[in-house]
Design a protein that fits this description.
This protein is of the alpha/beta class. It is 31% helix and 22% strand. It folds into two domains: 141 residues, 3-Layer(aba) Sandwich (Rossmann fold), CATH 3.40.50; 118 residues, Dihydrodipicolinate Reductase, domain 2 (2-Layer Sandwich). Helix 2 links the parallel strand 1 and strand 2. Helix 5 runs parallel beside helix 6 and helix 8 runs antiparallel to helix 9.
């Protein structure tokens, strides 16, 4: 047997090295991701975690507090600075405050790696990051997150979309702190109040921590200036509710999702699970959904 044939035979059945995943930010989403990427931590996991993926690091502003939080959750992984993330990972998941997106994204994209972005509203003012990814072979991925049907929206966009509208209803606490509501107290509401009507671009500026879904929808469809958005503060709802209405030559869609809020009332529990699903598809022998 030749040396080349022997080497090929020796390589048969050898599992590829796991993809190294790092998390930037340890809020409700980051912590849930860390737990689900840690083998054997969750009931029924059987020591697998996400096959083909390995959590290698977490970055947080308060490293001591983050380390204690991870330890309490049973996650053993280094806590590092943002600047230390890129050399450690193949994929970085950004789930930090929107203002930190450039400092997280630039080193990752410059190295030609993949960045999964949850603060997608911040991308509208940082489209040079897309140019950087294009130049280096890097990749920016926006998960479906707390929304639904982005695969159908993107498919319809291939033939042209006539209109898209998103109506969001949240408990008043889920809208707290939004710049658009500065000085306005929603705590005493007894009935639903519309607090915004405009475009996805306007929603992203006015509600940067609350309406990333509007920008994800806009990027999948007809852009931030043609995507209509209504936001309601509704004391009668206990879940973050999003309804998409789309009209196109190939399909008319009406879709509603009611998300159970996470420990952070501004985001739903399904957001972290959307990232887990995305990562699982990266190495799965069968991937469903575009």
């Amino acid at each position: 047997m030749s040396a080349a044939a022997g080497a090929a035979t020796a390589g048969l059945g050898t599992a590829p090295a796991p993809v190294r995943v790092a998390i930037a930010g340890l809020g409700a989403i980051g912590l849930e991701l860390a737990r689900r990427l840690t083998p054997g931590l969750l009931p029924g996991d059987a020591g697998v975690g996400v096959p083909g993926m390995r959590l290698v690091a977490v970055a947080a502003r308060d490293r001591e507090r983050a380390a204690a939080t991870l330890a309490a959750a049973g996650v053993t992984v280094p806590v590092v600075t943002i600047e230390e993330l890129e050399p450690l990972a193949d994929i970085v998941v950004e789930c930090a405050p929107a203002a930190l997106l450039p400092s997280i994204a630039e080193p990752v994209l410059r190295a030609g790696k993949e960045l999964i972005v949850l603060s997608v509203g911040a991308l509208l003012d940082r489209l040079e990051l897309v140019d950087l990814a294009r130049a280096t072979g890097g990749r920016i991925t926006v998960p479906t997150g707390a929304l639904l049907g982005l695969d159908a929206v993107a498919a319809a966009a291939e033939s042209g979309i006539d209109s898209v509208k998103l109506v969001t209803r949240k408990p008043p606490l889920g809208l707290a702190g939004a710049p658009h509501l500065a000085g306005r107290d929603l705590a005493g509401l007894t009935e639903a109040v519309q607090v915004f009507a405009g475009t996805a671009r306007g929603a992203a500026k006015g509600f940067p921590a609350n309406l990333n879904v509007s920008v994800a929808l806009a990027l999948a469809g007809i852009g931030p200036d043609r995507t209509e958005v209504e936001i309601w503060a509704d004391p009668a709802v206990t879940r973050n509710t999003h309804t998409i209405t789309l009209r196109s030559p190939v399909a008319d869609l009406t879709m509603t999702i009611e998300n159970v809020p996470s420990e952070n009332p501004k985001t739903g529990r399904i957001t972290a699970l959307s990232v887990v699903s995305l990562l699982r598809k990266r190495t799965a022998p069968l991937a469903v959904g575009s």
